[in-house]
Write a structure and sequence with these properties.
about 130 residues, single chain, little secondary structure
Length: about 130
């Protein structure tokens, strides 16, 4: 009889516990916070905001040698459109060398030697034809 009482008490406790627990729902939140990536020639205007190589952005993206930002960190004028060379964009097939975050620049940003634009971008991932 003791065995039956112990089993029924354990079963009642298990049912009570199961009835009072709430199912857990997985929640995934992706946010972009903190400072922008430290990239010597700017970073792409799309997630995961990797460092863009020299030659991707045109000179209008830099003020005093400092990148004006892209994506959630963009701090240019509202109607800004700057030139880019999307041959250096991985979404357009670029597989060349990448620049590490925090790397020191090896090219001068003052003259932008050899820059050839083929697209205009607004800093938020939107492209248009280049202005001539």
């Amino acid at each position: 009889m003791n065995r039956f009482r112990t089993l029924s008490t354990a079963a009642a406790a298990a049912l009570t516990l199961a009835a009072t627990t709430h199912p857990l729902h997985a929640q995934v939140t992706v946010t972009v916070g903190g400072p922008p990536p430290a990239c010597p020639y700017g970073y792409y205007d799309f997630a995961p905001y990797g460092c863009a190589p020299y030659g991707y952005y045109g000179p209008e993206w830099f003020t005093g040698g400092v990148f004006i930002g892209a994506g959630p960190w963009f701090h240019g004028p509202r109607d800004f459109h700057g030139s880019v060379n999307n041959h250096f964009d991985p979404n357009h097939g670029y597989h060349g060398p990448s620049v590490a975050r925090g790397a020191r620049p090896t090219h001068s940003l003052k003259a932008m030697h050899g820059f050839h634009a083929n697209e205009m971008r607004d800093g938020h991932g939107h492209a248009s034809a280049p202005h001539h």
